[in-house]
Amino acid sequence: MKFTLVWIATVTAILLVVAIIIMRKKMPVGPRIPEALEQGKLLPEFSAKDEAGNTVRSSDLRGKPAVLMFVRGNWCPFCTRQVAGLTTRYKEIIGLGASLIFVTPKPLETTRRVADFFKVEFEFWLDASVEAAESLGLIFPGGVPADHAEEYGEDTVWPTAIIVDKDGIIRYSKLARFIFDRPNPDVLLKELQKI
Fold first, then answer.
1. What distance separates the 2 farthest-apart alpha carbons in the chain?
2. Distance CA 8, CA 65 (A)
3. What is the pLDDT of residues 69-98, one digit of tens each?
4. CA-derived radius of gyration, the chain
5. Strand spans (E) along the chain
């Protein structure tokens, strides 16, 4: 009996490892972080819309640190989990005087519902045409699953986290190598505390 359970557990573990390897080989791999977004560089100028429809610019962030999260949208379970994870560190991030901003292709209303559900006041910037993402080298062409493409379009962004200091200098940047690869909220908090 004991041998059988060990054998079943071993076979299950091997099958799980094989499945993960196959899944990773078939999954698109993100590019390296674009040169313009490397640590130590000034955050490039880009614009988006805030929730009121006003134009906002990356240069508007100067004066205090900011955590920018480029997310694919609320249809993405990994993005939803990322928002949920950041709620655990939200007060600490804001307590350090930083802004926490999610840049999303669309739509703001449904993305806002996720934040409202977790009772946090994230800022959301809309990059509806993904022009900002494209100008920064973060575009993921054809990255929206077919069953969501009609509502959300075909192109989206590679999930990316950027921390800038009060002068707009990038102090941390991470682009997801796989769509499920997101920075741990504790890592973002630690990086922010270094500023």
1. 67
2. 51
3. 888 766 676 666 777 777 777 788 888 889
4. 19
5. 47-49, 55-57, 66-70, 99-104, 123-126, 139-140, 156-157, 160-164, 170-175
CB 82 within 8 A of CB 182: yes
Residue 153 CA: distances (Å) to CA of 25, 38, 142, 150: 25, 28, 8, 6
Provide the token pair at 95: 């307590």
Which of 52, 59, 84 is CA-nearest to residue 69? 84
Q: Is the dihedral of CA 75, 78, 79, 81 positive or negative?
A: positive
From CA 155, how far away is CA 142, in angstroms rounded? Answer: 5
Give tens-digit pLDDT for 37-81.
899 999 999 999 888 889 999 999 999 999 998 887 666 766 667
Nearest of 110, 107, 140 to residue 126 by alpha carbon: 107
- Nearest CA to 124 among 174, 65, 83, 173? 83
Q: How many Å apart are CA 28 and CA 178, to the nearest integer?
A: 7
Query: Following CA atoms 15, 21, 27, 28 in sequence, which dihedral angle do they give, to the nearest 10 degrees?
Result: 180
Encoded tokens for 4: 């059988």
Pull the structure tokens for residue 73. 């949208």
